[in-house]
Design goal:
The protein has about 260 residues and is α/β, with parallel strands linked by helices. It has a single domain (about 1-15, about 25-245), classed as Ribonuclease Z/Hydroxyacylglutathione hydrolase-like (Metallo-beta-lactamase, Chain A). The protein has 6 helices and 13 strands. β2 (about 25-30) and β3 form a beta hairpin.
Length: about 260
Amino acid sequence: MVLQVIRFFNKVFTRRVSSHTRSIIFRQLFDDVSSTYTYLLGCPITRECLLIDPVVEHSKRDFKLTKDLRLQLKFAINTHMHADHITGTGYLKALSGCKSVISKASGAQADILIDESDIIQFGDHILKVFSTPGHTNGCCTYYLPEQEIAFTGDALLIRGCGRTDFQEGNPRTLYRSVHDKIFTLPKNTILYPAHDYHGMMCTSVDEEKRLNPRLTKSEDEFVEIMNNLNLGYPKQIDKALPANKVCGVFDIPKDEPLDEV
């Protein structure tokens, strides 16, 4: 499947891997309640863009940014069905008419359901879809090979990884997803996670292969670690999962007029 899309970060960031590499628009945005990163990716030629892992409370902020940058929002996509916040996908659909995108394996509803080896295309760029389950069944990593950038969702965090004790979590599956998919990318690949709780913004394949305190262990050691984390019950899971099952289409704030953006 080929989807047209676009990319952004928190700082204007242009990376040239070769003389043929085109620039991209990139923003990294943050929600300080759930410590979620949202990524805006854009094509400077076609002016189309997408948002990765939007948060409902920041939908108007994110949509306004696309307008400020003279971009047209085409897709709002999720790396997985989140349990710690309600996705902004439904609100962004109402604001912009964009299409929602999520993995078919997530079990969630969306306009477009993606799977392993699908390609999201924007301008001259392609964003490859890797299925990286283990935190949830529907976790995906999105990889831009020309710029050597990947968005890992909760599968791989900075010096950590997503928990595996609920929502189809499986530590062996997660370990193999990271080692067989993400860790086989070029070592200089920059990785942008769905969350960070320590003030860090990105990492790399090389850093995590050397420094990740969990995923540098053997598979059996990793399973033992993950099975004994004894983490608390996610605070927003009871309202987030039902909402995200339908990509947040019923969770548009009623007191915020859509035209005031």
